[in-house]
Amino acid sequence: MAAAKKIRVTLAKSVASTKQDHRATVRGLGLKWTNHTVEVVDTPATRGMINKVGYLLKVAE
Question: Which domains does the chain have, with CATH numbers?
Fold first, then answer.
């Protein structure tokens, strides 16, 4: 089976003055601090999470 496509996501801005559910979404993506980068599997669920808090992130395919 082919390897799942991954997306590299970086937290570019602080979550200090954001809504609680946006903070939870960032945490759900696995991001812990500013400039932290993780690779997540490209699924509709993760795409939705990225779209929700896209103003805080940098995304590289």
Answer: 6-60 (3.30.1390.20)
